[in-house]
Design brief:
427 residues, 39% helix, globular, alpha/beta, Aspartate Aminotransferase, domain 2, 15 helices, Aspartate Aminotransferase, domain 1, 17 strands, single chain, 7-stranded mixed β-sheet, Cysteine desulfurase
Length: 427
């Protein structure tokens, strides 16, 4: 059988990432923090620099040749990124990231509740006692915007529990999602456990009661084949900087009828067809959600990142990274005093693992690994409710990417195995 590692030419891939030639504390860099921010291949850096040096101009505004070229590249980027996630170009709204995308939806629904927007937007209006369902596994970016929406509208937040192994409790989900549920917002892949959520089951539960589904795809879009239309979600958000792309760019996917009905959130230039002193008429989606100056060079860079990943084949990327994730879980499980968060058998996951070392604070573990050239994430990973549910305040997270090698995982496991002895936690 052909292994995922043999399908992907790791040596060639690693040569595409200039930062991997750097050292960290005098050691070769082992970058295991892609869950926070992915490194960028040279083609992404070149694409953005090339745009800024040859095509830089305002889009959708100027009539001169340079502006027309910039606009064409900007919209080509939209089509490329949309195709990567199974969407039509008009179903993809540019944002500054996933946080902005989710806030866009929450505030647009708030505007609908306040009576703004076309008559079609009334379907999104919330009333006191309506319910917004999230899960205990959510990143704060897919929780706090809904808390704020609930506070503005009188809606109620309800949460689907997770089991002790961090998998979602589907029986509890079936009891929580009810006729009062208007929104079901959930992560595609947990940024703490790396476990892929049962999207089909949650979408079916939401559809049965007519609830809107909002998917956080930050940890899935870079690591496994994603087709939002096939998944059946109404809306989804993801960020470019986790997808091998630039900072300051992300996207909101929405089914066309949803985007057309939602009222805008940010308003101003570039999203209108007509303006008087007293009123304005808005462009159709996605442009009605893109007020002001757009992240043009970033969109071009993100399109280059998407083409790079498509060239590798996302199926092979997922298979390879899932192998790495399983290896991390299995290796960590064997180290005395180490507890893995999301230690579940037989689940689909990405190449990400979080863990706790008994008797040693997560920050100390991170610094110990950093001294060995290993970059990991420490803290609550913007997922305090999940850490609280699992009885922790912080953990260490290692997350792989397309360039991660087996030797990187070996170095991680050897480092973690030495932590408790170094800090005297075994005494």
């Amino acid at each position: 059988m052909t292994s995922p590692a043999s399908v992907l030419d790791l040596a060639a891939i690693r040569a595409d990432f200039p930062i991997l030639d750097e050292t960290l504390n005098g050691q070769p860099l082992i970058y295991l923090d892609s869950g926070a921010t992915a490194q960028k291949p040279r083609v992404v850096l070149d694409a953005e620099i090339d745009f800024l040096t040859r095509n830089n101009s305002a889009v959708h505004r100027g009539a001169h040749t340079l502006a027309a070229e910039a606009t064409e590249l900007f919209e080509d980027a939209r089509a490329t990124v949309a195709g990567f996630v199974g969407a039509a170009p008009d179903d993809l709204v540019w944002t500054s990231g996933a946080t902005a995308a989710i806030n866009l939806v929450a505030y647009a629904i708030g505007n609908a509740t306040a009576g703004r927007g076309a008559p079609a937007s009334a379907r999104f209006a919330l009333a006191p006692g309506d319910e917004i369902v999230v899960t205990e596994a959510e990143h704060h970016a897919n929780l706090i915007p809904w808390q704020e929406l609930a506070a503005r509208t009188g809606a109620v937040i309800r949460a689907i529990r997770v089991h002790d192994n961090a998998t979602l409790d589907l029986a509890h989900a079936a009891s929580v999602i009810s006729e009062r549920t208007r929104i079901v917002a959930f992560t595609h892949v947990s940024n703490v456990s790396g476990i892929v959520s049962p999207v089909a089951e949650l979408v079916a539960l939401a559809r049965a009661v007519g609830a809107l589904t909002v998917l956080d795809a930050c940890q899935s879009a870079p690591h496994l084949p994603v087709d939002f239309a096939e998944l059946g979600v109404d809306l989804a958000a993801f960020s470019g900087h986790k997808l091998l792309g630039p900072y300051g760019i992300g996207a909101l996917y929405g089914r066309s009828e949803i985007l057309e009905a939602l009222p805008p959130f940010l308003t101003g230039g570039s999203m209108i067809t007509d303006v008087t002193i007293d009123s304005a008429e808005y462009l159709p989606a996605p442009l009605k959600f893109e007020a002001g100056t757009q992240p043009v060079s970033q969109a071009v860079g993100l399109a280059a990142a998407v083409r790079y990943l498509e060239g590798l084949d996302m199926g092979a990327v997922h298979a390879r990274e899932q192998d790495l994730g399983n290896r991390m879980i299995a290796g960590l499980r064997e180290i005395p005093g180490v507890r893995v968060l999301g230690d579940a058998e037989g689940v689909e996951r990405v190449g990400l693992a979080s863990f706790d070392v008994t008797g040693v604070h997560a920050h100390d573990v991170g610094q110990f690994l950093d001294a060995r050239g290993i970059a990991v994430r420490v803290g609550h990973h913007c997922a305090k409710p999940l850490h609280r549910r699992l009885g922790l305040t912080a953990s260490v997270r290692a997350s792989a990417s397309v360039f991660t090698t087996d030797d990187d995982i070996t170095a991680l496991l050897e480092g973690v195995a030495a932590v408790r002895d170094y800090f005297g936690a075994d005494e």
